[in-house]
Amino acid sequence: MGWQNHSFVTEFFLMGISQNPKLETVLFALFLIIYLATVLGNFLIISAKWLDIHLHTPMYFFLSNLSFVDVSYSSVTLPKMLSDFDKDKKSISYAGCLTQMYFFIFLELSESVLLAAMAYDRYVAVCKPLHYTSIMDRSVCIRLAAMSWSCGLLFSLVHTLLTTKLLFCGSNSISRFFCDVPPLFKLSCTDPFYHFLSLVISGGLIGFMSISIKVFSYVRIVSDILKIHSAEGRMKAFSTCASHLAVVTVFYGTLYFVYFRAEATLSEEKQTHVAVFYTMVIPLLNPIIYCLRNKEMKRAIRTIPRRKTIVFTYCFVNCPCKLY
Questions:
Q1: Nearest to 178 by CA among 261, 104, 106, 258
Q2: CA atoms of 267 and 184, how far apart (whole Å)
Q3: 157 contacts 279 by C-beta, under 8 angstroms
Q4: Rounded to an integer, what distance in angstroms lies between the CA atom of residue 14 and that of residue 273?
Q5: From CA 284, how far away is CA 297, in angstroms rounded?
Q6: What DSSP line would sit under 204-235, residue for residue?
Q7: Which one of 33, 105, 230, 324 counts the least CB within 10 Å of its CB?
Q8: Residue 303 Cα distances to 200, 275, 282, angstroms
Q9: Could you report how far apart the first and last alpha carbons of the chain are, in Å?
């Protein structure tokens, strides 16, 4: 079929999560609570890091970056989905679809690289404690964070540009509640081979590098922990890594299930249900895991109201333009 017979789509229709109006009301309330809890939980971590001087360390610097990624990650899909609940026609423009897909891939890849940077930070903290401050200095932390954002920015741009080369004909209904790569592949009437190849190469490259750093870091960490004679010392060393290890396990376990298992074994409806988990639940789990496991973070969050009052009072008293 020649390109003249292809229809150039201007919008896509999102199938959403449910077509039952009564169920949609319940889902709207539930997902709104999840979204607000995600935003609140992650911003509490960010606020605690910047307001508490005891948290001005590399680990919490990376954690605040992770929290910002999670807030942005949720905001790419959830507000649009919530606004569609009361609409009979759940649509998104072609440009809006590409924009949503771009930011979704950007943040997903950035989180993967950022988790690798956090694993390296934990490796240095446990295996080279005497050199920790010299190795993980401010410039190194900033470069690692910048590399995380840059990798996501670059590779998501490549995927988005390649997607603009795809032609769509026939149905323009996306079987999910947001624009993701696999559903767009299925709708395309041109061969997405090169797009798929670039996705595999870039995703595989980032994934391989990230996982390699994590595996190396935790193999060394476990090896060093086992050499500690004191049971209390082993528990203390392990506790510094437990939260990050839990986040890594949930993140990669979910991505593996979604992009490798679900596409081959689950129906479209069940794939949508799985997509709900990795777009809504994971960004909420990260602050829960860190807040429950980390005593310093819990203490800092409890003191946020008092610290904000002190900061506000200081700014008000020293402001040259204060009102009398």
A1: 104
A2: 16
A3: no
A4: 14
A5: 16
A6: HHHHHHHHHHHHHHHHHHHHHHHT---HHHHH
A7: 324
A8: 45, 36, 26
A9: 75
Residue with tokens 């190849």: 197
C-alpha Rg value of the chain to the nearest Å: 22
Are 55 and 300 spatial neighbours (Cβ–Cβ below 8 Å)?
yes
pLDDT in tens, the chain (324 residues): 444 444 467 778 877 776 677 777 888 888 899 999 999 888 888 888 888 787 788 888 998 898 999 899 889 988 888 888 777 777 888 888 889 989 988 998 898 889 889 888 888 888 888 888 888 999 999 999 999 999 889 888 888 888 887 777 767 777 777 887 777 777 777 776 767 777 777 767 777 788 788 788 878 887 877 777 777 666 766 666 666 677 777 777 766 666 665 555 556 666 666 777 777 878 888 777 776 666 767 677 777 666 544 444 434 334 444 433
Q: At what angle are helices 58-84 and 138-163 packed, to 10 degrees?
A: 30
- Residue 62 near residue 141 (C-beta atoms within 8 A): yes
| Residues with Cβ within 8 Å of residue 36, at least 6 apart in sequence | none
Predicted TM-score (pTM) above 0.85: no
Please answer whether residues 243 and 294 qualify as being in contact, where contact means their C-beta atoms are separated by less than 8 angstroms.
yes
Amino acid identity for residue 308 in this structure? K
Q: Sheet containing 11-14: give its strands across.
A: 91-93, 11-14, 173-174
Rounded to the nearest 5°, which phi and psi values hold at 307? -65, -40
The beta strands (E) that lie in 90-195 are given as 91-93, 173-174
Strands (E), the chain: 11-14, 91-93, 173-174
Give bridge partners of residue 91 from the DSSP assignment. 13
Which token pair is 163?
């997607």
